[in-house]
Amino acid sequence: MDRALWPEGVERCSFGKFLLWLGFIGIFLAAGAYEAVMILLPDGLARTALDNYFGFGLWITFDLGVIALGAGAFFTGLLKYILDIKELEKIVNLTVIVGFICYSGAMLVLALDVGQPLRSWFGFWHPNVHSMLTEVMFCISCYLLVLTLEFIPNILENRQLNKIPLLHNIAHNFHYVMPLIAGLGAFLSTFHQGSLGGMYGVLFARPYILRDGFFIWPWTFFLFVLSAVASGPCFSVLVVKLMELITGKELVDFKVKKLMCRIGGTMLALYLFFKFADTWAWATDVLPRSGNTWDQMFNDALGYGEWLLWAELVVCGVIPAILLLTPRFRNNPGLLYTAAILNCTGIVINRYVFTVQALAIPVMPFDQWYSYTPNWAEWGPSIMIIAYGFLILSLSYRYLPVFPQETQLNPISAPAAPAPVEAEEVADVEGEPETA
Amino acid sequence: MAGFKEFNIRWSMVVDIDKCTGCGACMTACNKENNIAPQEEAKARLESKGFPTRFKKIEWLTIYELSNGKQGGDHDTAFLPRPCMQCGMPSCVSVCPAIATDKNEEGGIVSQIYPRCFGCRYCMASCPYHARVFNWDQPIFPEGMEKQLTPNVSVRSRGVVEKCNFCHHRLMYAKDAARVAGEDPEKLADGAYMPACAEACPTGAISFGDVKNPEHEVHELAKSPYAFRLLERLGTDPQVYYISKREWVRKQGDNYLESEGAAAHGGNGGGQHG
Amino acid sequence: MNRRTFLTFSAGATAGLMITPIPWKLTDDASIWTQNWQWNPKVPKRAIYFAEMASKLDPSGSGVKVAVVNGNAVGVAGNVDHPLGKGAVSTMAAAEVGLLHSPARVRQPMLKTATGFKAISWDEAETILTGKLSEARGEVAMVSGDDTGSANEIFAALVNGLDGSFYMMPGETQSAHKALEMMGGEGRIAYDIENADYVLFLGADALESSGTSTRNARVFSETHPTGKAASAKYVYAGPVMNNTAVVCDQWIQAKPGAAATVALGLSRILMDNGAVANAKGFASFKQNVAQGYAPAHVERETGVRADVLKKIARELAAAKRPLVIAGSEFGQGAGARALMASLGLNVLLGQMGQSVKIIPGAPAVVQGAGSESERYAADVIPFLKGVAEGRDGAKVLMVYDANPAYGLPQTQAMAKAMDKAAYTVSFSSFMDETAERANLIMPNSMTAERYDDLYTPHGAGTATYSVNKPLVKSAFDTRTTADVMLSVASRLGMDLGYASFKDVLQAKATRLGASWSSLRQGKAWTSASASSAQLNLAPCAAPAVRAIGEGTLALAPVVKHNIGTSKVAMPPHSAGSIRDTELSGVQTVVQMNAKTARMSGVKAGETVKLMGPGGEMTAQVYVSEKVMTGVVAAPLGFGHTAWDGFSKGVGENAFKLLAAADDPETGLSVWSTNRVTIATA
């Protein structure tokens, strides 16, 4: 029925099945949207489990997580367009879409998270140049614009749109300026990834996250950039793998995935070097300077134990770095994907502890530890964003030439994947957000 | 991070912990003075909707209970009222993306501009004293109680952060009174400007004045060997001083490593500012 | 229109729009709207006026200034000129404004019908009351909780005129009247805490809930200048490190209700060291004290170590102006013994007429009201018990400024008395437990809305007198009870000699020799006159009252005014100051130390059941070393079944645990030595 809109030379499932799939995504979108509307209109943030101790919680963790994972977009773009690594063009479209989803999703969550969304432009109108958050706001907004510009040519390449000469030419010309846009994106993205880290590092009255630094930038500034570029490429590969599982087709060459993961692994190793150094400096300088001990920073009983740190640094740091950098392990798809998952998990743990554990620790000696558990009002919109990501990816996959290798890897004469399997995979994958 | 101005006037509170009974009169006075709605209605509303209520109340002044941790006859207790510290180097001001909080007025009170705040709560995350609270819900006054709002302080809307401002409107009144009396509004007499909590306190545990003005009592008090400030070593430079003759109380004002021993605390809290 | 012109038009329109003020104005408006939502209450734009007033809700009678905007009370400020307020604003004084629009206020006269209360007019209400009173002649009773007002004279005169019985609520004032009466004195006990250099509080929570606590707190503050050496030593002896003990220079752990025994123990040491008093009954006092109250005995009875007792005795003897203030830890139930024993001690210390004075009581100006001590003579507890059990009849029972259905021991029996009396009339400003049980509610105006006066609360330093006049618009259709009763009296054909309560106050001012115009402006009158009458020490050495109940732990009720008093429930603006060591969710928290918890087999955070001689309650355990071993501390003020959302159903009422015992010698019931058993619930 909508065959005319499909990219040339590819096979897609029936329109009915696709609608069913969209409906399935729609359930999650609707459930989350309901929570979002209830928060925006009648109930406000009173609906959430956030409180005066935990002003930041799941949403900030979620935002920082997806923005780090979405870093595949700027980093791949940088490597492809500026450093001219040709191989990456096979995946660069997808990284852009993933980036777009992550950033627009983060913006949506942020709009919920502020108490007065109608005033959220005050950060631009009355900017405080000293605030890392101002930098974040400017960079994220601008970068989302850049991502949109990067996404547009791909949209215009839709088979029907591309028939219109104007759009065709626009798309074509966009490709010429893409290195400029990619460069701009890399610049903006580096700065806001950094300023997100800086947001924590500058909190000089919170010894858990306070970091000294270089010039005006605390070390977390650089650590966040590095950790983002370490996890972004791996996350893009995981998204491709997920799409391959759902569609039952090979979309990107394993060679390209290996390359992406090797890049991610390299950056991870670099990041870990600095992260260990930073942790050491924190433990031996920042903490004693503020009169705190290592043990005071952790609380096993409330779930903020030291194990989280070791999980982040070793299980989700050193181990995936080794797996990704050793050709023998990297060539094994199972180990590659495991390593990619661990890598991404480690970065999410990092963002979580910086957001939540930092606030759980009592700084005044007579204060107490408190724990924070997000409620459905916070999970709902977060899941909505994940569903929104699935929606954008599904539409993009069906109607846009995202994967240049698809026709080559899946000749049209090849038998389509059996339908029941597909449906099953769909169910499995969609089930994920709820249990996440 | 940005440095902050030095002011000629430094409005400061000196709280004598040894005189605080924990009676709560300061909190009651603060609530009334600053048009803070009684929290029961709001809590009941949240409960009726099944929302979490922990730490959602609006409270500018919190009284902490300190214990020396000993048992039996050696045990001792102290109450520590905690307003906003009006830090000389506020961790909250530099982080606000919209300059909704600032420290740029003579006297050094850290302002909070409710109509400017869009509720990102970064300032709350930055403050180790928990001095800032967020309006999670609309303010709800029991019927008729809205007639008892004072003209001094606007009622805050949902979704903005608020905090103690040393009853800044009282400073304005005191300056006006000085102008009317033909005096210099920048040289207020000791006691001409008092926040509601300091005025109410039955045991007079809260002293208030310009710590830089030798004619004000707090000038000497802040230099007392028993004076200290909360988390001083983090560099926040609070304008609220505490006094206690009990060493264990002073020691709980900041974090100390075991190796630092007694030398690290009970020092002269206000030496460099007096 | 082709595509090109459409695109050109769109681009042009967008650019054109951006240079008009429209988008910028809309954006600007959005920022304004978000500050001015119509559901946000607006603050008034009017000037503030301050008017002076003496708080009747605050048992310490502190004077304050009420901030008035457009006829509405908006705040309370301190009044440095008032001798009992001294510039402070206690939580109860703040409640004078905070409670004006309390959801619990009774808005007009109410008559109970089969289906609940119905609103009636004041005329109807007075007609009904007049009818009931004329029918009930001889079986009329009235209970008043106003320890400082002249309204009592009107009530007593009316009730006496109907051959009825008049009772005052038990408390420190009644204890003081009884103690003085037994020692052959009359008037009021005054403590010159201002000039004392050594103050020993025996049980009396004198900086929070006992006596003129606001003034005491200010004096404490003056004698303990911040950052400097204290000019007086303050010592507290009691079972709990309460608000008073926490700031005192020393806390001595003493069992609940130990004040009398400790005072006599100190007297014994002083007399053993040669202290004598040129006072009536000294020989008998000395002999009786010498027979008991050896330090070792006192230690056994009260938990106060003998060496500590000796040290305190030495310090008292060495002080220039020592002062001993005794009372119940929670302001009631100590009977007269603690006061008598402490007066004996003060006399031994040579402080009678110095730190401790006897000052004249309020002169009566209403014919037939009797003297103050006559009004305090009768004990309301046995009377109410009798009504509850159907022994005493009360055809009409009137309650003024008191909540006996909530704030007395054996609470259930007291509440039952309200039900059992044939006709109950409440004059409460609030829908409290007593009002809820009344047949007729004739709501009194609040302090800021009415004429009233305040004469020398218990423990003041000198005689003081303040007059209040209406400062704000009446929030509701309420009236001053004293005026209502004058009107009822005239309907009954009785002439009490005054047309209005204001005239009574004016007469009182004249009798005291105070300036009416100055009083009317809120200025307090004070008098330094004191009686030089000799007190008889003989009854001071009476043996202490035994423990009530068989429980394993001594119960120490704790009063904090931010939780409320026995009359007034938690004021809305104080609700935030309730600590989680007092209330956890809606569960009352009781405190005991680690050793007691171990002995009782309970753990921190556990829900337990307390069983006292008066009844039971459930509570959560908080382990705190602020309570002495063998004692469980329970906050009073929770567990209201009436009132408003701030207090109804919040926690449990610890008054329920208490039972009162007879003390035939003094004629006053006592309930400061209750014991409870604790079990995990």
From TrEMBL, chain A:
It is found in: Cell membrane. It comes from the Bacteria. The keyword Nucleotide-binding does not apply. One of its GO terms (cellular component) is plasma membrane. Coiled coil: none annotated. Its main location: membrane. Residues 422-436 have a biased composition (Acidic residues). It is a multi-pass membrane protein. Keywords: Cell membrane, Membrane, Transmembrane, Transmembrane helix. Residues 417-436 are annotated as: Disordered. The chain crosses the membrane at residues 18-41, 53-79, 91-112, 132-152, 173-194, 214-239, 259-277, 307-326, 335-359, 379-400. InterPro entries: Electron_transfer_protein, NrfD-like, NrfD_menaquinone_reductase. Belongs to the NrfD family. NCBIfam families: mnquin_red_QrcD. This is Polysulfide reductase NrfD.
From TrEMBL, chain B:
Coiled coil: none annotated. Keywords: 4Fe-4S, Iron, Iron-sulfur, Metal-binding. Residues 11-41, 75-106, 108-137 form the 4Fe-4S ferredoxin-type domain. Pfam families: Fer4_11, Fer4_2. GO terms for molecular function: 4 iron, 4 sulfur cluster binding; metal ion binding. InterPro entries: 4Fe4S_Fe-S-bd, 4Fe4S_Fe_S_CS, ET_IronSulfur_Cluster-Binding, Menaquinone_reductase_QrcC. This is 4Fe-4S ferredoxin. It comes from Desulfovibrio ferrophilus.
From TrEMBL, chain C:
Belongs to the prokaryotic molybdopterin-containing oxidoreductase family. Pfam families: Molybdopterin (PF00384), Molydop_binding (PF01568). This is Anaerobic dehydrogenase, typically selenocysteine-containing. Residues 105-485 form the Molybdopterin oxidoreductase domain. The keyword Iron applies. NCBIfam families: mnquin_red_QrcB. The lineage of its organism: Bacteria, Pseudomonadati, Thermodesulfobacteriota, Desulfovibrionia, Desulfovibrionales. Residues 579-653 form the Molybdopterin dinucleotide-binding domain. Keywords: 4Fe-4S, Iron, Iron-sulfur, Metal-binding, Molybdenum, Oxidoreductase, Signal. The keyword Cell membrane does not apply. GO terms for molecular function: 4 iron, 4 sulfur cluster binding; metal ion binding; molybdopterin cofactor binding; oxidoreductase activity.
